[in-house]
Design brief:
The complex is a heterodimer of chains A (153) and B (793).
Chain A lengths: L1 E8 L2 E8 L4 H8 L18 E4 L2 E4 L12 E3 L12 H8 L9 H14 L5 H7 L11 H10 L3
Parallel strand pairs in A: 1-5
Antiparallel strand pairs in A: 1-2, 3-4, 3-5
Helix pairs in contact in A: 2-5
Chain B lengths: L15 H5 L15 E7 L5 E7 L1 H5 L3 E6 L23 E2 L5 E7 L2 H9 L2 E6 L6 H5 L15 E9 L2 H6 L3 E9 L11 E7 L3 E6 L4 H12 L6 E5 L14 H13 L3 E4 L2 H7 L6 E9 L5 E11 L7 H10 L10 E8 L15 H18 L3 H6 L7 E2 L5 E2 L4 H12 L1 H4 L7 E11 L14 E7 L5 E5 L8 H13 L6 E5 L16 H28 L6 E4 L2 E4 L2 E7 H12 L3 E6 L19 E12 L6 E11 L6 H20 L5 E2 L2 E2 L17 E7 L21 H13 L2 E2 L1 E2 L3 H12 L5 E2 L13 E3 L12
Parallel strand pairs in B: 1-12, 7-34, 8-32, 10-11, 14-15, 20-21, 27-30, 31-33
Antiparallel strand pairs in B: 1-5, 2-4, 2-6, 3-5, 7-15, 8-13, 9-10, 9-12, 13-14, 16-17, 18-26, 19-20, 19-25, 22-23, 23-24, 26-27, 28-29
Classes of the chains: A alpha+beta (153), B alpha+beta (793).
């Protein structure tokens, strides 16, 4: 069954006519062509599809858009403002924190939520916050370095 | 002035901004108008004849556009020419649970999935072989009718020099058995491909592949259409690690469905399908006998390996030889024997994973050395440090060593970790272990035998100063596209903003064999330098005319060409380009790289040679809880000899990633089966290290430029994984005095060994023996004249 759903994605109000059982991940990627949000398992296990909903990390593969009307959804495409990279994006680039870059969007958003709530986390607190985001390339070291470079000391 | 402008700088990758903004187009991000979605039906049995497949109901389902089976894809292929045992979809029989036997193209994935349920398959179950022992004890029909005999895919035996004499001259001889469990790549990106067959009878396949050239060759064969009508575009790979090096059934099925329907067809594997697609680390059972003198010098080694290959050949012949090839490149070994066996089993096929066939024997060798050192009362540092291979020498099995900075690696790691102060001196439960490793900077021979270059780079200069660079290499996240830009920009003396890159497209780019065997930086880098040097010569000549100076007085740096004695006398790069174009016509140059002929004069010598070897030394400190068996890794120190770091930031990233992956294998990762079913085909159940299990890693880059490498560079992508599992095993022994001769080292195994110790039995968990296999009479090989000699006492 399809339905017209109104979503707020990256500060843009978007109407989408879509099947109500489709996940937020599917609607973002397939209906809205926002392919920056990735999938690694579609079972809530890898963290690759993380987006922010009202500032909180949400696994978009487990979320239904119909429940998110009226809430602010932020994807990786919305992180840079007016062509300026978000400081986390710049730090990930400068520190070599994105190798293949496939887990990167989910990790950036998880890190943004952490820093928004808690501007000066310790390295161990960063580890805790990222424990649900798998990365196979980096050994996490450069990711932790990049987030440390952005945190308020 | 610094020696280089770009080489050696910790620069962001050229594609970093695309990666952090989500703009990088991975295969599943692509879509085309009227695109269909494909799904695969996997075999339900581990080994079964496919007596009949009825697709009538599936084809009739509204929304289904085409259904194909093995009958549509009968041509056999395989990555190794002597091992052609795959078809796009299984035809005669299914050989493992999940083996693709049919494919559906439909208007959406849900319809395709519903259609799979409507396909009726009549199976005739055959005896399933699920372990090395079962495969060898073949009671019914073998899995393939190819291979060496029955279920034995490959049986090799090679003897170099006189191991018997070596053992007889030894003061101490011991043999040990080890097991290294299989594990899988677990790329976060699931394999995906998009096929498009256009009205002009041309097929384009975008695919998440590390090896677009091999996919090009094999897809052409599997579909029976000429390579000239097939275009492969390797999309940026979202994690490879060796897992995307074969041609896969899903790629062939998508291409075939696109040809039948005339519409674009996309296929993306589910995570469960990725686990069953596999091609990962072989489970290897090993037996190693080593003879040493009192000083720890090795007099002879005999190594036997037994590989559980899974259902296909894949890279398995190479994997088999690799389990015996690189034992000799770290410490002097004057006599060596290798027996290797690979069997087919009814499980997902194994293949190459980071380190390809060498982490398993490296684990065995380095743990056994630790045991030998203890028996002889030697330090684990000294037994290694005193017997390193010489630079500019050969090994007994004819491998050419150029540079080897393992001495410096060991010294730096021992110092940084405080190994000598800690080993055997930490409190019970706490321990430190040491190990070394070495890996190829690119395989010396291609997968299919030929005399052609392994890589080529084309550069075209634009009148506006743009430098367009073309190469078939595929970036899998390691930064190879960036390395291409760095090398060309450095030689031409321009900034990276001048460089435009076109890569991994068989229509547009000259061939590179692919991102495997740690070959790209070394080989592509040399080709890029060669191409850039040709153009630089023309530019210097043009500038010499303009400045009325001899060419020898000029240098190209900083976007201009200038007189080295008087930098005010200069011409901008683009003006030199224009002048040279006026003189010579379009400015296009090619560079190629073919490794020197390094293979020894014997059958089986093709696996192991490399133009240069990287070296690593690693120390791991652990805290083992004797109550729970839990291992907490406190810290890892690693020194890696990469010749020269083209970009130290990326080299560190490769080293840290390799250490992490080795640690995952050592502690928890297992591709294991409950009979024919994968035990953990999900990312929740297949345990891999998160941020919480990955310790701090102290990385020491050791630079001793290799004369054959681009700017002296050797590899960094695979070697650093190798010493991690044995260093961890040795650390666990140092902590609680038990030997876990088996990977992964789980808490259960630690507790079991501690229990045995309490009972006064041998405090060891590991394999008890090896299968009773008669290896063929070995091929005897005269050691290379430059190899270490067995000195008479």
């Amino acid at each position: 069954m399809k339905q017209l759903i109104t979503l707020n994605v990256n500060n843009e109000t978007i109407e989408v006519y879509t099947a109500i059982h489709k996940t937020l991940l599917e609607v973002l990627r397939e209906d809205l062509q926002l392919t920056g949000t990735k999938h690694g398992c579609e079972l809530g296990e890898c963290g690759a599809c993380t987006v922010l909903v009202d500032g909180e990390p949400v696994l978009s593969c487990l979320a239904l858009p119909i429940e998110l009307e009226g809430q602010a959804i932020l994807t990786v495409e919305g992180l840079a403002v007016d062509g300026e990279l978000h400081p986390l994006q710049q730090a990930f680039a400068d520190n070599g924190a994105a190798q293949c870059g496939y887990c990167t969007p989910g990790i950036l958003l998880t890190a943004k939520a952490l820093l928004d709530h808690h501007p000066h986390p310790s390295r161990d607190e960063i580890r805790q916050a990222l424990a649900g985001n798998l990365c196979r390339c980096t050994g996490y070291a450069k990711i932790l370095d990049a987030i440390e470079a952005v945190r308020v000391p | 002035m610094e020696e280089f402008d770009i080489i050696g700088q910790p620069l962001p990758k050229v594609d970093a901004v695309n990666k952090v903004t989500g703009a990088t187009p991975f295969a599943d991000d692509l879509s085309l108008p009227r695109m269909l979605y494909a799904k695969l039906l996997g075999c339900h049995h581990p080994h079964a004849r496919l007596k009949a497949i009825d697709t009538t109901q599936a084809t009739a389902l509204p929304g289904v556009v085409a259904v194909i089976t093995g009958a549509d894809l009968p041509v056999k292929y395989g990555i190794i020419p002597s091992s052609q045992d795959e078809t796009g979809l299984a035809g005669d029989k299914g050989r493992f649970v999940g083996d693709p036997i049919a494919a559906v193209a439909a208007v959406d994935e849900e319809t395709a999935e519903r259609a799979l349920e409507l396909i009726q398959v009549e199976y005739e179950a055959l005896p399933a072989y699920l372990s090395i022992e079962e495969a060898l004890d073949q009671k019914g029909e073998p899995i393939h009718d190819s291979g060496d005999q029955g279920n034995i895919h490959k049986l090799v035996s090679l003897e170099y020099g006189d191991p018997q004499a070596g053992f007889s001259q030894a003061d101490y001889v011991r043999d040990d058995t080890f097991f290294y469990q299989g594990n899988t790549h677990l790329p976060i990106e699931q394999h995906a491909a998009l096929a498009h067959y256009t009205a002009d009878s041309r097929l384009t396949l975008w695919s998440s592949t590390q090896t677009p050239h091999y996919v090009h060759r094999l897809l052409s064969k599997a579909l029976g259409i000429p390579m000239s009508r097939v275009r492969i575009i390797a999309t940026p790979v979202g994690g490879g690690f060796g897992g995307k090096c074969d041609l896969f059934g899903h790629e062939i099925a998508a291409a075939k469905l696109a040809m039948i329907t005339g519409r674009p067809v996309k296929i993306t594997l589910t995570r469960e399908e990725v686990f069953y697609t596999h091609r990962g680390r072989h489970p290897v059972l090993m037996w190693v006998k080593t003879g040493v003198r009192q000083d720890g010098s090795i007099t002879a080694m005999h190594f036997k390996t037994f590989l559980d290959g899974g259902a296909h050949g894949s890279y398995g012949i190479a994997s088999t030889y690799y389990t015996g090839a690189l034992q000799t490149v770290t410490y002097k070994i004057p006599a060596y024997k290798f027996d290797g066996l690979r069997v087919f089993t009814n499980k997902p096929p194994c293949g190459p994973k980071r380190g390809h066939g060498t982490p398993q024997p490296r684990f065995a060798l380095e743990v056994q050395l630790d045991k030998i050192a203890e028996a002889l009362g030697l330090s684990p540092v000294d037994i290694r440090r005193r017997h390193l291979v010489e630079e500019n020498s050969h090994t007994v099995n004819h491998l050419r060593i150029t540079t080897c900075a393992l001495d410096e690696c060991l010294d730096k790691v021992v110092k940084a970790s405080g190994f000598r102060e800690k080993h055997r001196q930490l409190a019970y439960g706490r321990g430190i272990g040491l190990a070394c490793g070495s890996y190829l900077s690119g395989a010396g021979l291609p997968i299919y035998w030929n005399d052609l270059p392994h890589t080529s780079v084309q550069i075209k200069l634009d009148r506006g100063g743009g430098v367009a660079v073309y190469c078939g290499q595929a970036d899998i996240g390691q930064g190879s596209t960036s390395v291409l830009a760095y090398t060309v920009a450095e030689v031409l003396g321009v900034g990276l903003d001048h460089i435009q890159l076109t890569v991994a497209d068989t229509d547009l780019t000259p061939i590179d064999l692919g991102s495997y065997s740690s070959r790209v930086t070394f080989m592509m880098g040399n080709a890029a330098i060669q191409a850039a040097e040709k153009l630089k010569a023309l530019l210097l000549e043009a500038a010499a005319d303009m400045l009325e100076l001899p060419v020898g007085a000029l240098a190209a740096r900083g976007g201009r060409i200038f007189c080295v004695d008087d930098e005010r006398r200069s011409v901008p790069f683009e003006q030199a380009v224009q002048r040279a174009e006026a003189q010579h016509g379009a400015l296009v140059a090619m560079g190629s790289y073919t490794p020197p002929k390094l293979a020894g004069p014997f059958k089986g010598s093709g696996v192991g040679p490399s133009p240069a070897y990287s070296y690593s030394a690693c120390a791991v400190e652990v805290n083992v809880d004797p109550q729970t068996g839990e291992i907490k890794v406190e810290k890892i120190w690693i020194a890696h000899d990469c010749g020269r770091a083209i970009n130290p930031l990326l080299v560190e990233g490769q080293i840290e990633g390799g250490v992490y992956m080795g640690l995952g294998e050592a502690l928890m990762e297992e591709q294991s089966f409950r009979r024919q079913q994968h035990k953990s085909p999900s990312m929740l159940d297949y345990k891999s290290p998160t941020t919480l299990e990955t310790p701090e890693i102290e990385t020491l880059i050791i630079e001793r430029p290799d004369p054959g490498g681009p700017f002296g560079a050797k590899e960094a992508g695979q070697g650093p994984l190798l010493p991690v599992p044995p260093a961890l095993a040795n650390a666990v022994y140092d902590a609680v005095g038990v030997r876990i001769d088996e990977i992964p080292i789980t808490p259960e195994k630690v507790l079991k060994a501690l229990d045995l110790k309490r009972q006064g039995k041998a405090a060891r968990v590991g394999p008890k023996g090896i299968p009773n296999v008669t290896f063929p009479k070995p091929v005897w090989v005269e050691p290379h004249s430059g190899a270490p000699k067995l000195e008479a006492e």
